[in-house]
Design goal:
Blueprint (H helix, E strand, L loop, with lengths): L13 E3 L8 E6 L2 H11 L3 E14 L3 E15 L6 E15 L4 E2 L6 E2 L6 E2 L4 E3 H12 L11 H4 L14 H13 L1
Parallel strand pairs: 5-8
Antiparallel strand pairs: 1-9, 2-3, 3-4, 4-5, 6-7
């Protein structure tokens, strides 16, 4: 099976669907160091230390294609509180369906009709399994990473003379009092 690579994508493993045997195809993807660096830039994180996936592609009835697999990765991000590096291990399965003409537009409103069970639209005669893995990685990355034990109270300065530290409006009250004293 011939696998093409798109130089414009960080992780590309493109397969032409007309060359996929009836039994389907399985592919193990392991991202190179340069691919992992490019993915880290794409997702705005410190590093993708490890990325590999096992992916299977096979045809289903009515021109639908199923892509399923398992993603294993290790990413490093900045903690949302302390900005210190936080490592996240990812081990997630995925299962997607693709079909030509999968998008349906409402004839009256012109809006895209979205069905949760509908297959993803298939553009062209190929699927890029590497890009699918990259997308799954992006979805699996924790959007709010936090170092274990990190808390906002650890980095916020103590409010001098705040009347009630538990109130979210204590700082506003202090500002209000400061303005009254100036008048």
């Amino acid at each position: 099976m011939h696998i093409d690579r798109d130089p414009d994508l960080e992780l590309s493993r493109r397969l032409r669907l007309d060359r996929v045997p009836p039994s389907g195809v399985s592919l193990d993807i392991e991202a190179s160091a340069s691919e992992r660096e490019a993915l880290a830039r794409r997702f705005g994180i410190i590093a993708v230390s490890e990325l590999e996936a096992s992916v299977a592609l096979h045809a289903e009835p009515a021109g639908t294609w199923r892509v399923d697999g398992r993603l294993h990765a290790t990413v490093v991000q900045a903690c949302g509180v302390t900005l210190e590096p936080v490592e996240q291990r990812i081990d997630e399965p995925f299962d997607l369906r693709f079909a030509a003409g999968a998008e349906e537009v409402d004839r009256v409103t012109g809006e895209l009709v979205v069905d949760a069970d509908a297959p993803e639209p298939l553009a062209g005669d190929s699927l890029d399994l590497g890009e699918i893995v990259a997308d799954q990685l992006g979805l699996a990355i924790d959007p709010f990473p936090r170092k274990p034990g990190a808390s906002l109270a650890d980095i916020l300065p103590a409010s001098a003379g705040a009347t009630d530290r538990s109130s979210p409006f204590a700082a506003l009250e202090q500002l209000k009092r400061g303005k009254k004293n100036k008048n």
